[in-house]
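Exercise: predict the fold of this chain.
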Amino acid sequence: MKKKLPRYNYIGVTLLGRLAVAKEFSHAKSPGLRAGELLLSDAKLRSYIASKTVASYAVIVDILIGEKGDPTNFYKRYDFVEFPSNPRKLYLPMATVEKTVNKAGLI
């Protein structure tokens, strides 16, 4: 991945923050409802649309382990990849986001 990046000191990315689902809307309470997946899909779509105006190479997530456990596997299920130097930080290249939203017919 590093070989494909331009030789700049800094590269623009989109940071996802505070992506969480309230207890009453969690999959455990309502098995048919997948609010986390819907929120992530919406965040990826909005990130992609914004990347057309403001340069963004990838979507970044800082993993915060809370009372409900470690959400790393949730993000990995949707193609997020760990930073080699920091396994508590994940990224998803914008090219992958574009493929995802195109495949879903969202754009």
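Check your answer against the key: The radius of gyration is 15 Å.
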